Amino acid sequence: MTSGKVLSLYMTMPDMIRSGHRMRVEDMECDENGIMGSRDYENGKEHTMVLVSKKSYDIIEEAELAFERGLLMEDIYVDVDLYHLKKGSIIEIGEMLFEVTGPCEDYRYLYAFAPELPELIQGKRGLFISPIEYGRIEVGDEVNVVQEA
Hints:
The chain is mainly beta. The chain contains three helices and eleven strands; from the N terminus they run E-H-E-E-E-E-H-E-E-E-H-E-E-E. A seven-stranded mixed beta barrel has the order 1-6-5-9-8-7-11. A hairpin with a 2-residue loop joins strand 3 and strand 4. The two termini are 14 Å apart.
């Protein structure tokens, strides 16, 4: 079984605070509509959250590029490489279950940071995941693959 830990959590703040501001948080509550309190909560999209592995930033650092965590627009940043998981796989994070809905393949905005960045992390940009039910996750929570599709 593949397992690891949550290294950091991020959420996009709603318009009333500062539109689009991404904030690092210690914990978050989620349900099937996404991160409660986030600007994108209940946005109706199939892909509600992005999980990024440390592997992505390792690749960036090996290319001698330096970027802050959060650049890849992750909601959940973990220390375990989960990029082999396919749509339909189930991941347990803390007390919550998430379904993998597919790979995150939006690279366009990354060209502004470094022209080589999109190609460098091709296939390792992150995973779209959706919460299956209500729960809470915290930095330091265990990450376990429950079922591979």
